[in-house]
User: Fold this.
Amino acid sequence: MDKYLNNKEELLFDLIEQKQFDQLSSDEKQLVLSLITEEEFNLRKMLISTAPSTFEDEVAIPAPLVIPQSSTTPFWKKPIPLYQVFMAAAIVAFLWLVIPLNQSGADTHTEYIVQTDTVEVEKWQIDTVFQTTEKPIYLEREVVVDNTIQPTQKEEPRLLLPGPSSPIYLNENDISNNGSSLSGENSSALLPAFESENIGFRNL
Amino acid sequence: MANAKNTYKLSDEDLMARLIDTGEHDPITELYARYSQRLLGFFMKMFKGDLPKSQDFLQDLFIKIYEKRHQFKTSKKFYTWAFTIASNMCKTEFRKAPLESIDNHPEVTAKFTQDTDEVDRKYIQNRLKNEIQTLTDEHRTVFILRYVEGFSLQDIAEITETNLGTIKSRLFYATKKLAHQLKDCQPNNTSYYG
Assistant:
């Protein structure tokens, strides 16, 4: 590891590169001679001036350049500038938003998909109907029952019984026997039929 | 395809921008045509002139550039960025397999015994080239980037991902070490090298 040059050494370095010893000022000569001799200064100067022509005889012809196919980067490995990535993302987002709106009109493809979806829903509905018919449904409801008791036996028609075997003889003087019979009345049908023995006239 | 034919008119950074956008091969091919020679030279300097290894590293470098094109900032220079990747590749390689010391090569050390009176520019160049390889990886990298490839100190700091003070320090000590190793190459006429 070379140590860094101090100020004098750095100045000496610059002087060797830039000037001949004869061209140095007295101060510069004094500085140079404090570090190296005049001969060494000239030697170093000679070396660096000879160096460019040192390799003149080494002239070689380069072989033709061959870039192997593997060095050619395929397009998917090529670096993409950042702004192009953002532009692509913006275009995708724009299309994502715009394309569904544009397809709201008559589009055969879209309609076909909708029809297919409808068929699937219809099948599902048939299955639902089948299931609901198989299951018993219990319903609760209030039923009002009329508990009124109706007579089950018909009352026998009440008939008037024939009169007593021994007729009542009333005062013939007071009672005229010229009256009309009740059976001749029209309203007699409304009267229940009485049997003769059940009438109060019956003999007790 | 009409655009592909016009890639040579575009700047490095525009080519990279097109490469990032399209992933087409035309921009990377054009960049390869512009810089492959220099980058191959860099790898060869770093790997002691090992051409096959340098060719492999050059191919790997441009494949990395193609694969990591999205990491490139068009506000920065392509050339510096490419050298940053190249420098990191060398650093990783040096960690895995440190370079063999140059002292083990007799053909190189033999040159050191030559008579210093015969010093000429070529000889110094060869000596310097060999001595550069003896530097540490960090010193060698900054020395080559600065004095061979001609990058500015600021660019080297970017390429090696260090600060300016560290770069100056590494260059200073690298030059000091080279001067010590090449002491026998003392120039008699300094203006010749200026």
